[in-house]
## 1
Amino acid sequence: MTKRHLDVVETYRTVPEDFVKHLIGTLVIVTAAVLLASLLFGVPEKPPLTIQSYAATHPLAFEQVALNALDGQGAIASYGPPYNHGSASVQTGLQQAVGVIHPLHANTAFVLKPLAMAAAINPSLRPALRAFNQASLAQQVRWEAAFGGALTKGTYQNGLVATPTANDGPLPALMNAMLQLGRSGLLSGALIRNPAIVTRFDNQNYLLFLQGTPLQTAPATQAMLGSNWGIIHPAVNGYPGAWWMTIPTWIYQWSFVANNAAADALALSIGFLFWMILALAPWIPGLNRLPRYLGVHRLIWKAFYREHENPAPGSDRKEPRHAS
């Protein structure tokens, strides 16, 4: 018989131990170490891009975002499945096959519904909102086009956006009301309210409101767009970025992925395939033999294998018990 199959458990002395004491002690030590490390080496928090901050710092651009949601020109208003039947961001037939599973009418959800909530506590807003809602679709389109042209020449004065006189009906008043909602932080609350869901809030509209120009401009100033591997760049200079996302980001740099209209679908599919290979590795013939072929475990435990494969003369170690 050989000693290489010696049962390791039989070669060590066992003693009573308080496992709970060790568990709690380890938890306390690790928690203290993490808190101390975060104080000494933690990355400063980058101020988040919020609806309120964007309205306060970019009032004219904010009104343009609201107008785009109202007239159907916004990133989400014309996005396509799963939000609506648009085609602006449709990548594959698979996306169209899924269909509209999260229906979203941007003009109502992003603008008219929040304004209706504001009008409930601010009666002065009701005439302008009523005039817009009662106008024909053609009239609304003319007002929106006129206000869009005037907004390009607008100025910000005393907390309001002033635009040149145009045939834009009640839109100057409505857009300034939207701006006030945004600056006050109340728009965020209005967007997450869903009367159909009593026990929780619905964050969909809040997350989607700034899609498009606002969320493209902010990362561009930090070289964090997808075209420059932005996800692994630091949000705060001098600190490391999300380096662990290198492999998923790398997939997007493959030419057949980067130049494909369905880049997201391809990247996710490839990533899922890698995950499945790793998850099923113990059952994949050949792949499940790699640990034995590579012998990494023998490098880690080389002292143990050296001792038990070539035992010292006169060793009194017990022979392993094997069936004859």
Note: Confidence is low (pLDDT under 50) at residues 319-324.
## 2
Amino acid sequence: MLTSLVPSQCKVALLAGGTSGEREISLSSAKGAGKALETAGFVVTYLDPASPSDLKRLIDESFNVAFLCMHGKKGEDGVLQGFLELIDLPYTGSGVWASATAMDKAKSKEVYRKASIPTASSFSVIKGEEYDSKTMAQEIKGRCVVKPATEGSSLGIYIVEGEQAIRDSLDKVFEIDDSALVEQYIDGKELTVAVIGNEDPQALPIIEIIPQGESYDFDSKYAPGGSQHICPAALDEEITSRIQGLAVQAHQALGCRGMSRTDFILDKEGQPWALETNTIPGMTSTSLLPDAAKAAGITFPELCTRLVEFALEK
């Protein structure tokens, strides 16, 4: 905790940018988080892991903690976390294993199933390997979601139906990722639940996402007016408690620390289905974690301060 290290004495390396397809979103997150950290009184240095000289500064200079605003590969998949472990620099968010597992949607769904967290039926497909699209179409029955297994920010998501449409969508997904997920499409409310904490994680208020398009894709996430966020979501107490409990369960089953955000679909029968867990939620002006924290009475500077405190608990 910051009991012996007040913000003005805490030197924060704010890491953003990187080389993934989500670089620009990462830089936008850093603007929001950086301003909040500075408002809270921290000494903030902006560094880009895509720059070797910036990585060297992490080794050569004296920082108390790294604040990660990294999205996508080599940022939230355990790679950068492993580097920070090697140089013994505390960092916000989850460790190597949890980051790598949550980043891989197929692997995280295996964790969900072992933890009895309901999740839609799916098939994993690896680029270059044979797959049976006919069986996929027959077993999923109806519309399915074809998406990259290890990309974030809803990049490359297709909602399709039928064997040929599955094959065509997989061809497109393999242009940006080496693995894909073909998942049963579930019609219902799109919800997301942020969780913060380490040993005793707490769920924040649930957000209902109402995209302007057919699904919560990249534009819905980041374009102004791309989606409407309702927080707290208009759900009864019982279902609210259940979904928040599942989000905490996902956080713990994946071994997350500091923060996570799990997305759900609540179907027409009132059954929630976990889709995926994000270990480094966005920090832009339209991002969900700051919105949920605000609904819980936590300001953006207070949220960032808590994330630093969680990092220093490790």
Note: The first strand starts at residue 11 and ends at 15.
## 3
Amino acid sequence: MRQVAEPYIRRKAIRHLEKKRVVIFAAGTGNPYFSTDTTAALRAAEIEADVILMAKNNVDGVYSADPLKDENAVKYTELTYLEVISQGLEVMDSTASTLCMDNDIPLVVFSIMDNGNIKKAVLGEPIGTVVRRNG
């Protein structure tokens, strides 16, 4: 990562945000047992992020089952983190879900393949599935 981006330093990231710069977090923490989902939730909590945007390749939100394997899968427009955890929905790992829930950080899951979706997500337009602490 050092070849393409500067290392994560919390105060530096916050300073970039204060200067109205876009900050993109990539990769993991380098620690065992921490997935990239957990890293995203951890960094979001550390900088008091308003939202986590989770762009996906093969789906446009959260479904009741894998829509590529189950034609009866139902897409959710909104869920709570407790629903994600209790239903075993494979949005992000349970540690990351709990961290987001505890820190009241919404998650927007959307397709990266549709033109303009990143802009829509950043602008807060209804897109994909929103996961929140409370519905």
Note: The radius of gyration is 15 Å.
## 4
Amino acid sequence: MKFQPFHNLFFSSKIGAFSRVTNREFQDSQITLTGLEAEIIIDYFTIQNIQTGNVKSNPTKASKPFKLYNTDKIINLNLVYPKPKKPELRLYISNKSGFKPTGGMIWFIFINNKNELVVGALDEITWGSLDQYDIDDNEYTNSVNLTIPKKINIKEIPTKGEIKKIKIKGRTTYKRNPNLAILRFEKSEYKCEINANHRTFTSIKNNLPFVESHHFIPMKFQGIMDYPLDNLDNLISLCPNCHRAFHHAIIDEKILLINEIYQKRKKIQNLYSIEDIKGFYNCIRV
């Protein structure tokens, strides 16, 4: 499966692909490359430099260098077309070579920003939780809650937001306008947009139901967008539980949340398919 924008951002990759290792592939110590997996490898090594026939017939040509994910190691894996009349491209895995993911793991391959071919594997739980952390989310939530509550006039602030880089604790990030969040709260009547009946508590700050703001298309993707993600249509009013679920829920539960908000955002529907949005949350089933 093709890397989604989330994966390219997380892995600092230009293009990549992933799939689940089957028990048979683990037992046979070989992965049959298909689709984009094969395309990436063929483009990188060129088809003329890939061995046709078994490994033993030309071990030097069969051996190919890969950078092992999250290390500085270069490992050599055998890559061949085992049958001349059959377009099967096989990658041989082994503990000796340093790469043998077990059945059920997610293996991936990508070209990084240094034009290196990287191979790696993660267990399903780790793979599914890659998108859980947004380093700026807690600070943003606190800034919204600390903003002096007042009635916001839509004419006073740019509802489309702006793209502006700022420094926070020595880290470069993108500016988020807390007033836009408050405006979204007012439009939702300080209720959760997943379900208006979700109970919360009364905020000591403004004596209103406590809700939190979330960017439907996460702000971490601002660097690959040519329009500001900090805009009124992209903001959601959520109860604390639903907000945490967007970050930490299992895929099936997260997809339910995504579908609920997607149906309420016509402008976002005009820009992205529901599958696109799932990709932003690493919710593409393997």
Note: The chain has two domains: 5-128, 137-280.
